[in-house]
Structures are given as structure tokens and as C-alpha cells.
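Fold it.
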Amino acid sequence: MKRTLLFPCKLRYLGYLLAIPGLILGYMVAYQKYEIPGFELRIRENDSLFISAIENFTNELALTLVIVGLILVAFSKLKHEDELTGKIRLNALYWSILINYCFYTLFSLLSLFSDRNSLHIIVSGFLSTYVTFTIYNFFIPLVIFILRFYYLLYRNKNEYTIKQVHYLPNKPYLFIGKWVSLIIIAMLVVNQLFKLNIKWFETSFMLLPLSLLLWAYSKERAEDEYISTIRLEAMQIAVYVNYVILLISNMLVYGFDFLLIQMINLVTIPLIFIAWFQYRLYRSNQQAELKSALSS
């Protein structure tokens, strides 16, 4: 595991100092409609139908504090970093993304069911709308990762091994996940480029996170320790890039455009992971072929 992908150990404490006030402020913004007085800026000349010309940045501040704080807590070095902690990180990342998408699947099913039954009374609240889930999706993977990581550290503090992460078999899951994902992406691109406005093309986006997850969590033909190292590197990079994009858009994008980014955020982590993972596998294979050619 590359140590450069982790922050210095002491930054973990700064992470707690940022995340806890950020969560409190976020709760007050979401449920108490609190806004810091004087913490606003006019960003448009006039009000529109749904968007005010003056933007209060309390919500942006809360989200920034939470995300930056949780990332520092999650990805700061331990006092003793070794191969075992690397495996524990991979295990925790694996489960954090998986559990988050299990929540996504459950919510999607409940949302579809509640449209046709009286269950909407139960579903409303914590997961009352699709947009609500995308908001919690900003930090739920990081929270799950932190809880899982420190739980595994505590459980394995007197051991030197950890059980391997169980991926789906290579066949048929890798094939299904890859081609379903590519087909959905192609439909979305064609629908957008040619302004077809085909509704079921747009609706297919709801399946994309699950097909990408199927692709990302399927074994390679030859799965070994080196592949596990690449997986950890790719997953950490995916998380970092995802939250850098999110933080930038949090400060620069508003209104419906930010809602669109929230929707896209559902697929960015597995999409970035797959792109970097496949690139690293390609480079590794190229280097192996070159060494083989030189030795012969």
C-alpha cells in the first residue's frame, strides 16, 4: 500500500474537531432551518422562480466541515502502519461502499412500492425523497468506513491476520456488471446528445450504481495479494477524487445544478474505482509483458 495515500497521524484529531461541529451545524440546518446571520452573498441579480438571488452559505459550511473532517479521521495514518492495517482498510472500504448501496437498493424499492401503497407514511421522514438519500449519501460511506475500520482494529488487536474480503465469482458477475453498466451509460449519453428524452433511458440511471457495484466487486481471473493492493489504492483514490469534486461543486454550484451533482454522486465512487483499477491492471500487464520480452 502506498503510504502517500494517507494523511499524517495527527490530522485525525483535527478531523474530529471539524466533523463533530459540522454534523451539529448540519442537523440545525436540515431540521431547524438555521442559517448563520450575515453569512450570505448575492450571487444573482434577481430571484428566479425557485432560486433566491442571495445564497446563505451555512449549509455549504456544514457539508465542508463534515466531509473534510471525516476524510481526515478515516484516512490518517495510525501510529503503527503495516500490511495488516492495509488489509483492514480494504475490508472497511469494501463494506462501507457495499452497505451504502444496500441502503440505496432498499430505499429505491421502498420508494417504488410506496408510490402504489399507503406505505408512503412509513417511508416519509428519514428517506422521504430520492434527494434526501443523495444528501445522506455524501457522508454515510465515510461514517460506515470509520466504524468498520476501528471495529476491526479492536477485534484484531492481538492477531496478525485478517480474513480475506469475499468478492463475487468472476463468472458470470463480472461480465454482467460490465456490460449492463456500459449499455446504461451508452443509453444515457445517446439520450442526452440527441435530445431523445426517452424516459426509460433516464430511469435506467437508477440501475447504474448497482451494475457498477457488480462490476467492481467481482473477482479478476487471477485474484492475488497484488490485485488486493491495487484495489485498495483504486478505492482510496476513488473516494478522494469523489469528495474533491463534491467539495468544489459544494462551493461553486447551486440550485438544480447541485441536485444533478447529488444524483451523479451516486455513481462516482464505483465509476472512478473501476477506471483507475482497470488502468492499473493494464499498466501492470504491460510491464509484465515487457519484462517477459526482455528476458527472452
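Residues 118-129 have pLDDT under 50 and may be disordered.
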